[in-house]
Structures are given as C-alpha cells and as structure tokens.
Amino acid sequence: MISVSDLPEGYDPGRFFILYPGVFATLNNFTTLHFSGLRVHGGTAPVAPPNADINEFNAATRFNIIHYPPRGQTMGNQRYALGGLPNNTTFFIPPEMFSAE
Fold this sequence. Notes:
Largest sheet: 3 strands, antiparallel
Order of helices and strands: EEEEEEHEE
Number of domains: 2
Strand content: 25-35%
Structural class: mainly beta
Low-confidence stretches: none
Radius of gyration: 19 Å
Distance between the termini: 31 Å
C-alpha cells in the first residue's frame, strides 16, 4: 500500500494499523507498507487542526494505492531482482534461495 496525500499545513495525516502484531504507521505522503491483507487492518482519516476551514473544497485528500502481488510471488516460485551488475544486467535471486526444499 502506498499513501499519497494532499493535505494542507497543520493536518494530521492519520494512521494505519495492523491489529496483530500491533503495528501502527503514520500515513505521511508516500508512506509505503507491505503486509498480508489476511490480518485485521484499518486506518484513520486525516484530522484537521482546530482552526481549519473544513468547508473549503478539496481541502484535504488522501489516496491509498493498493498493490496485489502476482501469484508467482505469493506462491514462492518467482525470482526477485536484487540489483544491477557491472555488465548492465540484473542480478536475480531465484526461488531456491528462499526455500530449503
């Protein structure tokens, strides 16, 4: 999940939580979280400061982008790019390096 916010000065960006194991994250602009959606999770809305004009059109906006991984990644049979090599190729970690099977 990536949180993209357009909040006026002084607004609290809100929080995201994963109930167990008790993870709480402040949803500042471009905050990225990787988690299993199978666990109980949720969040709070941005909070305006006490003196804010909340009737102003589009005063505060937060947009969360949810990415679902490909099946190969969740099943453990996909390779991952670790970095670049000097010959302009990519160094991949094969699935065999994640599992002892």
